[in-house]
Amino acid sequence: MSASRINAGVLLEQEQNATLLDGKEPAPQATSGADAVDVSAESSRGNGAASAPAAETPTVQPIETYQGDIEGLVKDKNVSVLSIATAEAERRGSQPIVASAPAKNIFTQDFLKSALMYGFGFLMLVAASGALAYIVERPTSVATPQAPASPFIAVDDTKDITIAPDTTRTSLLSTLTAAKQATSLSLGLMSRLLITTASSTPSGQTLFPIDAQSFLALVAPDIPQNLLSTINPTYLLGVHVYNDNQPFLIMNVDSYEQAYAGMLAWEPTMQQDLSPLFDYTPAVHIPEQGVATTTPPTQFIQTGFVDSIVENHDARVLQNSTGDISFLWTFIDRNTLVITTNDATLREIISRLQQAPVTPIPGQ
């Protein structure tokens, strides 16, 4: 279409020229100066003679032009200029029009390329950070089996003490006393003394914790039977790291009235039955200035169990001559019985009892 529009004016002009050329002879071609002289001379001679020799062919051929070719075609082959122009227009129109490619948006391409590069770099950084965190924080030690959960209160450590079926009272109390003294924890922490015995099973020897009745029957042969029968199997024997490691015993009973009466009946031999595990001598008080400096006797003076309020609980206590508690027992509630050697240990037990028990206690 563009080729046809461009040649419309030219076609009109060529058509007009073709009309003029059809009516008269084509104009003679221009000749050089030497040729003009020869023609003039020959003309003058032609006037005087009837015939003259033919003109010589010029040595310089005329220059062929596009216009000359068109004129030759019109004259020799009787082809009109309009036909030639039409053919040329058709030839140009038959050629495919090459559409110019749209200009590339260099800014958009560069932006997308930069965004992809930054995104890939960010993903690589996140992956590297995750791998580094896994390497740094992964566990490097093998988990050790946890000790059985402690009943009544949470403890900070558990020490297993395995006894033979024929273990004597003296041997067991000596072993427990040594374990108490060997307990090494931070001040205020508690450790459990878990007493187990070996028993034969189809799969071999297995350790089983002994129950409260078996433990008390072994270490306190004089304990009243009505007290022993109301005590449940679950109990906790432990050590409180305070002022040279203090022992404690927590038990659960079915009947408060029966247990209380049994504890009163056990008082005459209770401390002796639990000795040396529950032996405790409070520190001697230093007299203040201006007070009589009479040195109290260093031996421990027993005054018998007396009623006392310890940590807002009714308790039965043993005191020395200066009023310091060396042994006590009390009921925290109607089912929980505690035996220990000082008020600080009782305070810690009460504090831990206020938390949820680690192991459910039968009957509660």
Spatial extent as radius of gyration: 63 Å
Strand content: 15-25%
Structural class: alpha+beta
Segments where pLDDT lies below 50 for 5+ residues? 1-6, 26-52, 140-147, 290-303
Q: With helices defined by DSSP (H or I, 4 residues minimum), what is the helix count? A: 11
- The H-and-E topology, N to C, reads as HHHHHHEHEEHHEEHEEEEH
Helix content: 40-55%
- Major β-sheet profile: 9 strands, mixed
What's the domain count? Answer: 2
Oligomeric assembly: single chain
Work out the number of β strands: 9
- Shape, please? rod-shaped
Q: What's the average pLDDT?
A: 76
Cα(first) to Cα(last) distance is 104 Å
Descriptive overview:
With 364 residues, the chain is α+β, with helices and mostly antiparallel strands. It has 2 domains: 2-94, no CATH class; 157-282 and 300-353, no CATH class. It has 11 helices and 9 strands. The chain has helices spanning 2-6, 8-23, 33-48, 66-76, 81-94, 106-137, 169-182, 212-219, 225-230, 256-273, 343-353, and strands at residues 157-163, 190-201, 204-209, 231-240, 246-253, 306-310, 313-319, 325-331, 336-340. Strands 1, 2, 3, 4, 5, 6, 7, 8 and 9 form a 9-stranded mixed beta sheet that branches. Helix 2 (8-23) packs antiparallel against helix 5 (81-94). Mean pLDDT is 76; it is low at 1-6, 26-52, 140-147 and 290-303.
